[in-house]
Amino acid sequence: MSLENVVDGLISATYLVPISIAFCITASHGKYLPLWIPSLGLIGAYFSYAMAELMGLPVILALIAGILLTATVGVLLHLILFRGHIERGEPYAGLLRAIAVTVLIEAILGWATNGYALSYRQLTLGWSVFFPSLSKTLTGADLLAIVTALAVAPLLVFVLRRTWFGLAFRSVASNRRLAGEYGIPLMRVDLGVIILSCTLSAIGAVMYGMKYDLSPQMFGEPTIKVAAAVVAFGAERPERVAVCILLLGIIEAMAQASVSAAALAPAVGYVLLIVAILVRYAFPLVLKRARA
Amino acid sequence: MNRFFLDLLTSSLLDSCLVSAQAMVLNRLSIPFAAVTAFSGISAYAVALTLSGSESTSLFAILLTIVVVTGLSIFARLLPQDEYLLATLAVLGVLRATAGSVEGLGGQLGLSSASTMFPPQSSLLFMCAALVLFSASLITHLLINRSEFGLAATVTRISRSDQTARALVPVNKIVFVCFVITALTAAGAGVLRALYAGRVDPDQFRIRSAVIVLMATLVVGYSPLRIALLSLFFFAFPDLFGYLFGYSASSLAFIREIVWSILIMVLVSRSLNLRWGLNAVTSALNRGFR
């Protein structure tokens, strides 16, 4: 295990921190696995690409346009498809629709681009910094991802634990019906959660596209990794999920550095997901039945 | 007959076999199983290894399949539906990574599964074999629909939400039997595909492929007529339409996925479940055919 592997893994994992936090917020609020949230960010990333690269809009405006579009589409999808399942407590139906939405978004983007990957030219941070102690050059995108991850997680913890919105969110997440009876505006909380998640998802997708280029299925494997971390540590603990994502990144980087284990690197997230599901759901039930 | 149509029919029939196999568990028992390609992939690799001289792998593949079937049927009753669905997809991910990392399985490049007895790309031969397998799977559905086992499977499905129904039928045995039927059908499709293509690789276990099969399965129900018509249409549409009208098959595949995912989004709701609406349509079709 070398420091370079650890740094590589950490850097690649920081790109997923905003998306994992968005996933946590939505999962905690709706009590289902929102596999559609990372794919939704792709809409913002592709729209920003179109605005900046094809229409020549200034970068900041292109990014804002992408985020606004993602938030709008996210709110519409939530109101039309997922709100009913959240209110009735139907996680499986929500998951099926989430898978359908993911396939829909990937198919639309694939059809629009003929399946080819797109590279940002305007939306890139061209500068880089060499760190002699790490023997590593970090690009502008890497530094942005690190700064975003370091800023987003504590900010979110502050919002969720010290603000009215955070209190309302936690109330709705723990008991939606009771929160509604006590006068918490459910629709406003719902929309706030979706808009926040979509914003984080769009930011994450743009950063991920800066590093790895945009492709319709670029969040296929990362989504499973994020889902694994959420199942393992619970959607109510976004800070733990973020740390888990970083650790997964380190483990994968170390596996990839080994010639014999390189091809097993993608399996780390899947194994974590299976183990987490068994530990959280199956084994307690088996133990309970054994005691009975 | 035109070779293109034979190849198209062969690949569509083999994919439809997977849909028919998965429908046995997903639609008939409401068990959110999405890893039918695991069985086809294991059997495909078993064929490739057997053809390369390693006969003992057949026994290992059978044992592995039994273990997987047993595990899936046990955990189907223990896990919540959404977690179970994710777990089955994760199993595919692990299988793909394993197949891609083990040198004996050919790594990322895979293995040759060409047979001298059944030469690859023998369109007519494999089309007939695929047709026989698909027909057998449809007849299985038909026989189950008209048998006591079918009634017991319906009660098993109901027992998921109604605990009193559990006492009426041996739920665990029925789930296991359905999984065995699923595994056998999918394994048959995997063997035929491996021999037809002449090569197997870790993409047998691609999660994306499993999701596409899942989406097709969600709509077809367990009526043999509906499985036959909808699954064949689903898989044949892009290439057939592209051949007949000159459109790009890959673009048509995207359009197919767009339409199908919208259909699933519309049908997955409390008031209009997947099977209610289509049952009405196929009942009318059945009455018309009689």
The SSE string of chain A, one letter per element, is: HHHHHEEHHHHHHH
Portion of residues within helices of chain A: over 70%
Secondary-structure-based class of chain A equals mainly alpha
Distance between the termini of chain A: 46 Å
**Biggest protein-protein interface?**
A-B, 52 and 46 residues
Q: In DSSP terms, counting alpha (H) and pi (I) runs of 4 or more, how many helices of chain A?
A: 12
Radius of gyration of chain A: 19 Å
Strands of chain B, total number:
2
The overall strand count of chain A is 2
Q: Termini of chain B, distance in Å? A: 31 Å
Estimate the global geometry of chain B from the Cα principal axes: globular
Notable traits:
heterodimer, A: mainly alpha, two-stranded antiparallel ribbon, 2 strands, 3% strand, globular, B: mainly alpha, two-stranded antiparallel sheet
Q: What's the short story on this structure?
A:
Chain A has 292 residues and is mostly helical.
Task: Write structural notes for this entry.
The complex is a heterodimer of chains A (292) and B (290). Chain A is an all-alpha fold. Chain A has twelve helices and two strands; from the N terminus they run H-H-H-H-H-E-E-H-H-H-H-H-H-H. In chain A, strands 1-2 form a two-stranded antiparallel ribbon. In chain A, a hairpin with a 4-residue loop joins strand 1 and strand 2 (136-139). In chain A, helix 3 (36-54) runs parallel beside helix 5, helix 6 (140-162) packs across helix 7 and helix 10 crosses helix 11 (238-257). With 290 residues, chain B is mainly alpha-helical. Helix content of chain B is 74%, strand content 1%. Chain B is built from eleven helices and two strands. In chain B, strands 1-2 form a two-stranded antiparallel sheet. Chain B is globular and about 55 Å long. Residues 270-278 of chain B have low confidence and may be disordered. At the A-B interface, helix 4, helix 5, helix 10 and helix 12 of A face helix 4, helix 8 and helix 10 of B.
